Amino acid sequence: MNRAYGLMLMIVACTFASCDQRGKEIKEIDAMAVKMDSVAKANPVFTVAHKVEAEALITEYLEFVRQYPKDTLCAQYLMSAARLYEKMPAVKEELQLLDRLIEEYPASPLVPQALITAANSCELVLRDYNRAIAYYRTLQEKYPDSPYSKNIDLQIEFIGDPDGLFTAIMERAGKPVDTLESVNAVK
Q: pLDDT tier at 120 (50, 70, 90 boundaries)?
């Protein structure tokens, strides 16, 4: 009886120690993230020093995901790490993390955002239209009610043509472009 009680106390102590460690890691990540958010807001382009700080935060995010793969914060940490890579820019790494989020956390509400972010990076940065269309179609098929799916058919149709996309969206909204006043005419 004493052995069972002692064993149970050890399990409870280990559980609390584990939770305490997780909490410390979250606080450390949060402190780093607040600092990095300030840097990102103030600097449209990261300096080498900023990239080093961003890489350190990304490492912390990924280490947390490795240690606590079932934690509800994992999808958010993967998205945050991908956003840092987007800011650097490191599109290959960004897409790897977005793909990981999509594959490993399919029930996360962040998946539609990850899909549209990946599609936009493929279309606008890499000019890889086939890959972008694949992301758009996945978003369209799996998350048709997502706000990110609005006008997705037009995004596919006008891929690589932002002016055509704008015109089509405005026409769909009942506001033909030729009836809009230009910004210069208003000045």
A: very high
Question: What is d(CA 71, CA 93) in angstroms, rounded to the nearest whole number?
Answer: 22
Residue 162 has pLDDT above 90, yes or no: yes
- CB distance 10 to 45 below 8 Å: no
> Between 183 and 151, where is the model more confident?
151
Among candidate residues 180, 155, 181, the one with its CA nearest the CA of residue 168:
155
Q: What's phi and psi for 165, nearest 5 deg?
A: -65, -45
| Number of C-beta neighbours around residue 80 at 10 A | 19
Provide the b/e sequence for 41-51 (b: ≥16 CB within 10 Å).
eeeeebeeebe
